[in-house]
Design a protein that fits this description.
463 residues, alpha/beta, binds 2-acetamido-2-deoxy-beta-D-glucopyranose, X8, glucan endo-1,3-beta-D-glucosidase
Length: 463
């Protein structure tokens, strides 16, 4: 071994030691908003099989913590949003929460991060906004009093805490949050040597402006696209770094240049609605594999504003979750199907070379869809629920369901699924432009395939 190699080795060893517990390791967000997911013990096996080193849950579910007993996974748990207002005013409540949710597992589960609320500043609930930092102080006091020294307190925030994120050096927190919430929050994080937990989704930024942002730049697979920030001269090679540095500069702007980032969520949907762009298995696998490669590199890569900095991270999510509301992409962020099968091969250790993966299915929706879309009954819809959703849809608008009434063109065959598909499509065709969605609690999905039959023509929207 040459002297230089030896020196380099020592140097990278030093680097990895100095970053201490905050190693470049990746984990998963274990969301549970599905009615068909694997039970906790099986889920924990699956998390380990994906080579995750960390896991985050969105509560303190004792069944999951029980299943995590004795594993090496570094665990993040969460105080639910709706408790913050009361906890912020009452130390006894904070103590009780920590005593009943954390204490029973502290000696057998590696609970390392206690997150207070989830994307609190994304909601419009002023009371909860103002409770955030006081609740964090109270939870920390409880954790300290019980002597749980390894637990850091934080709170995941989304990119919407910024009012400007471009160019990255122009990163600025929303003015209405800065003095009132962000400064006290950053002071807390700085003093306690905690992290700024950030949920960061290049997918949504790209999808909102696919003309100006190149897809490869958002997927971290561009080899020939760079952006140089005129404010700093720093050169970016992907959108993810740009978004992270916008937060770094926003913190710097208010006097906290050194708070570390922790990626509390990132990912790319493997599917979505017909009227959404770029949500497919190819892009999802590409983004997640590229992120894993970047964030497991040794020594750490960091970002242009913070080269060489370790970035602990959690990929969203373990499963596709069928009970998440919102657009179809929300229900398609998983690495796994609800039955536990991989959607595509992936290895969170970063040790599988990309060349070892089989080719992925070609993306078909990287351009905006043009054509007709219908809103039809989802495959596994519950028939009881379907009857009430049909009733609801038919009660909206003008003559929404006339053709499926006796004597109407779509009445026969008298099938619940066909009639509900008519009702959903007819409802959506009238209300999409004023914010109506094709969702119906998961009973409905968009399709580009015309469900019309016989002389029954089902209404559609046209993009
Ligand atoms: C908060 O406290 C009030 C007053 O004690 C109580 O009525 C309410 O149920 C509490 N809220 C929650 C979410 O526990
Ligand atoms: C704080 O919470 C505890 C436990 O629920 C309750 O007994 C007590 O009355 C609360 N204190 C105040 C001031 O609301
Ligand atoms: C920088 O951010 C401010 C808002 O904080 C915005 O008004 C301005 O347009 C941004 N500058 C650029 C070059 O985008
Ligand atoms: C942040 O923490 C560091 C180290 O503890 C300290 O030196 C610095 O003054 C703090 N910054 C602010 C703005 O409080
Ligand atoms: C970058 O390379 C890709 C593939 O080689 C090519 O399709 C694309 O046009 C190039 N983009 C730029 C900005 O040169
Ligand atoms: C799991 O679900 C997926 C998607 O529905 C399906 O393609 C796959 O065959 C299922 N795997 C098993 C083992 O049932
Ligand atoms: C359908 O939903 C109803 C309540 O909405 C529930 O009681 C019933 O068990 C569900 N049926 C199935 C097969 O899941
Ligand atoms: C239904 O008809 C009424 C009266 O003609 C009209 O005011 C209303 O806007 C219509 N609603 C929809 C959803 O088209």
């Amino acid at each position: 071994m040459g002297l230089l190699t030896l020196l380099l080795l020592c140097f990278s060893l030093l680097l990895s030691l100095s970053s201490g517990e905050v190693s470049q390791t990746l984990g998963l967000c274990y969301g549970q908003l599905g009615n068909n997911l694997q039970p906790p013990p099986k889920s924990v096996q699956l998390i380990k099989a994906l080579n995750a080193k960390r896991v985050k849950i969105y509560d303190a579910n004792p069944k999951i913590l029980e299943a995590l007993k004795g594993t090496n996974l570094q665990v993040s748990i969460m105080v639910p949003n709706q408790l913050l207002a009361n906890i912020s005013k009452n130390q006894t409540l904070a103590d009780e929460w920590v005593r009943s949710n954390v204490a029973p597992f502290i000696s057998t589960v590696k609970i390392r991060y206690l997150l207070v609320g989830n994307e609190i500043l994304t909601s419009s609930d002023e009371v909860t906004h103002n409770s955030l930092v006081p609740a964090m102080h109270r939870i920390r006091a409880s954790v300290k009093a019980l002597g749980f020294k390894k637990i850091k307190i934080g709170t995941p925030l989304a990119m919407d805490v910024l009012e400007s994120s471009f160019p990255p050096s122009n990163g600025t927190f929303r003015a209405d949050f800065t003095g009132r919430i962000m400064k006290p929050l950053l002071q807390f994080l700085n003093r306690t040597k905690s992290f700024f937990f950030l949920d960061v989704y290049p997918f949504f930024s790209w999808a909102s402006d696919p003309v100006n942002i190149k897809l490869e730049y958002a997927l971290l697979s561009a080899t020939n696209i760079t952006y140089t920030d005129p404010g700093t001269g720093l050169t970016y090679t992907n959108l993810f770094d740009q978004m992270l540095d916008a937060v770094v500069f926003a913190m710097k702007r208010v006097g906290f240049p050194d708070i570390r980032l922790f990626i509390a969520e990132t990912g790319w949907p493997n599917g979505g609605d017909v009227d959404q762009i770029g949500a497919n298995i190819f892009n999802s696998a590409t983004f997640n594999r590229n992120i894993i490669k970047k964030l497991t590199a040794k020594p750490a890569v960091g970002t242009p504003a913070r080269p060489g900095t370790a970035l602990p991270a959690l990929i969203f999510a373990l499963y596709n979750e069928n009970q998440k509301t919102g657009q179809g992409t929300e229900r398609h962020f998983g690495l796994l199907y609800p039955n536990g099968s991989n959607i595509y091969p992936i290895d969170l250790s970063g040790k599988t070379p990309p060349s070892e993966y089989e080719p992925l299915p070609k993306p078909t929706n990287n351009e905006p869809y043009k054509g007709k879309i219908w809103c039809v009954v989802a495959e596994d819809a519950n028939r009881t629920d379907l009857v009430s959703a049909l009733g609801y849809a038919c009660g909206q608008g003008n003559g929404t369901c006339d053709p499926i009434r006796p004597g109407g063109k779509c009445y026969r065959p008298n099938s619940l699924v066909r009639q509900a598909s008519y009702a959903f499509s007819s409802y959506w065709a009238q209300f999409r432009k004023v914010g109506g969605t094709c969702y119906f609690n998961g009973l409905a999905v968009q399709t580009a395939k015309d469900p019309s039959y016989g002389s029954c023509k089902i209404p559609s929207i046209t993009l």
